[in-house]
């Protein structure tokens, strides 16, 4: 019976280690405000939109000067972000910094790029759709098959599960000829028909080489991307921008970001704040004049403005995360058990340990438990006391309930 009781106490403690931290943070946590930040090509400074809790409305201001703008004024100092409104009102400048501004130029250079840890760490089905890149049709059409990368490339009919041997051998010949080393570590593409054109896939092989795969007039196109020796790619995200100036973003092992340009696959480094693709979030808001690079991490929100043509840093700022009061959980929660995280691929037990300060609380709870069992005139049991000293409030609650 004692063994069964101890097992129930252990399971109950683990259940509380999952529920108590969740309940505590649900009640006490206050979300840190997400302040929208964009670099003004007029003021040459970062401007922000934030919600004023006291006034109950949005505040639009220049971060450097703290000047507050009306909505119409704010549109004018961020012409690249509010370009649609300014063109409609006839308020868009003809040129900014000597660059002619018109709807075609603005729309071809504007894009939003966003990446978060879950994008990289979630499991992916290793089946890929390869479109015809030179179909001659206005709309991209589904090819009717998918491919996979194991010890070779194979094209499969998803309806019958049959391998298209002829097509597979034709493509595999190019992989062998170009020196591709199987198995592939990852393949990055955009398997959507809702885009103006298709640039296929960028694939990292087993030797950390990058290859560009396309299908052109039903024939394989495979090109090796020249990489400097110091760059070891870890993650790739592709993009088909309207101006066709680049192919993909490459995150390397040194936590640097690079751009694969359409100029002979040359790599261009993109300056970023300290960034970990496995833990932090990044967003790039680009326009013809500047690229706004936002990184959200435990440090807060770090923002850079890069010149669109050279990618040199024009300005940078840090919006620190706001303190939300004292975190009392470190005094009584020794650890927390979770099962999901943006940093892991699958559901599994994840333990987050607290501060060493909780050891004092654990010791006090163990003493209180000893006094309680003596008050109840129960037999002293050494194992529950040690368990409480290790697990704190979780073991204390379950031991009180089941130690009768």
Short overview:
This protein has 404 residues and is an alpha+beta fold. It has helices at residues 2-28, 71-77, 83-89, 103-109, 117-121, 165-177, 358-375, 382-391, 393-402, and strands at residues 36-40, 45-52, 57-62, 68-69, 95-96, 99-100, 111-115, 146-149, 153-156, 186-189, 201-204, 210-216, 219-225, 233-238, 246-252, 257-261, 267-270, 281-286, 290-297, 300-307, 313-320, 335-338, 350-353. A five-stranded antiparallel sheet has the order 7-18-19-20-21. The chain has a four-stranded antiparallel sheet with strand order 1-2-3-4.
Compile the SSE list and pairings:
Blueprint: H1 2-28, E1 36-40, E2 45-52, E3 57-62, E4 68-69, H2 71-77, H3 83-89, E5 95-96, E6 99-100, H4 103-109, E7 111-115, H5 117-121, E8 146-149, E9 153-156, H6 165-177, E10 186-189, E11 201-204, E12 210-216, E13 219-225, E14 233-238, E15 246-252, E16 257-261, E17 267-270, E18 281-286, E19 290-297, E20 300-307, E21 313-320, E22 335-338, E23 350-353, H7 358-375, H8 382-391, H9 393-402
Antiparallel strand pairs: 1-2, 2-3, 3-4, 5-6, 7-18, 8-9, 10-11, 11-12, 12-13, 14-15, 15-16, 16-17, 18-19, 19-20, 20-21, 22-23
Distance between the termini: 12 Å
**How much of the residues is beta strand, in percent?**
25-35%
* Largest sheet data: 5 strands, antiparallel
The chain-level mean pLDDT equals 90
Helix content: 25-40%
Q: Number of helical runs?
A: 9
Q: Cα-atom Rg, whole angstroms?
A: 28 Å
- E-strand count: 23
Question: Could you name the ranges where pLDDT drops below 50 across 5 or more consecutive residues?
Answer: none
Pfam families: DUF4857
InterPro entries: DUF4857
Protein name: DUF4857 domain-containing protein
Keywords: Membrane, Transmembrane, Transmembrane helix
């Amino acid at each position: 019976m004692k063994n069964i009781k101890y097992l129930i106490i252990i399971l109950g403690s683990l259940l509380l280690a999952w529920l108590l931290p969740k309940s505590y943070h649900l009640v006490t946590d206050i979300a840190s405000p997400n302040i929208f930040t964009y670099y003004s090509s007029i003021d040459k400074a970062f401007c922000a939109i934030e919600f004023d809790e006291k006034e109950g409305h949005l505040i639009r201001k220049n971060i450097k000067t703290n000047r507050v703008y009306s909505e119409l004024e704010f549109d004018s100092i961020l012409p690249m972000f509010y370009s649609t409104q300014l063109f409609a009102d006839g308020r868009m400048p003809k040129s900014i910094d000597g660059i002619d501004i018109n709807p075609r130029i603005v729309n071809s250079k504007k894009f939003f790029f966003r990446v978060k840890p879950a994008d990289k760490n979630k499991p992916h089905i290793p089946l890929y759709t390869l479109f015809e890149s030179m179909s001659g049709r206005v709309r991209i059409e589904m090819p009717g098959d998918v491919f996979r990368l194991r010890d070779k490339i194979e094209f499969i009919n998803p309806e019958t599960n049959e391998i298209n041997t002829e097509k597979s051998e034709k493509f595999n010949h190019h992989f062998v000829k170009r020196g591709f080393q199987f198995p592939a570590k990852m393949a990055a593409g955009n398997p959507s028909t809702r885009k103006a054109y298709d640039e296929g896939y960028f694939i990292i092989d087993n030797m950390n080489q990058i290859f560009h795969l396309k299908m052109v007039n039903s024939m394989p196109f495979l090109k090796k991307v020249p990489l400097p020796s110091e760059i070891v790619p870890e993650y790739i995200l592709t993009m088909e921008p309207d101006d066709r100036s680049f192919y993909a973003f490459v995150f390397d092992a040194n936590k640097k970001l690079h751009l694969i340009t359409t100029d002979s696959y040359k790599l261009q480094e993109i300056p970023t704040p300290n960034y970990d693709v496995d833990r932090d979030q990044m967003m790039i808001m680009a326009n013809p004049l500047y690229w706004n690079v936002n990184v959200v991490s435990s440090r807060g929100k770090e923002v850079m403005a890069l010149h669109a043509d050279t990618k040199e840093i024009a300005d940078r700022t840090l919006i620190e995360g706001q303190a939300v009061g004292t975190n009392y959980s470190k005094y009584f929660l020794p650890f927390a058990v979770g099962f999901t995280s943006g940093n892991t691929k699958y559901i599994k037990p994840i333990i987050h340990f607290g501060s060493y300060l909780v050891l004092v609380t654990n010791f006090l709870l163990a003493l209180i438990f000893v006094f309680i069992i003596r008050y109840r005139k129960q037999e002293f049991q050494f194992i529950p006391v040690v368990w409480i000293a290790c697990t704190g409030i979780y073991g204390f609650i379950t031991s009180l309930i089941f130690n009768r």
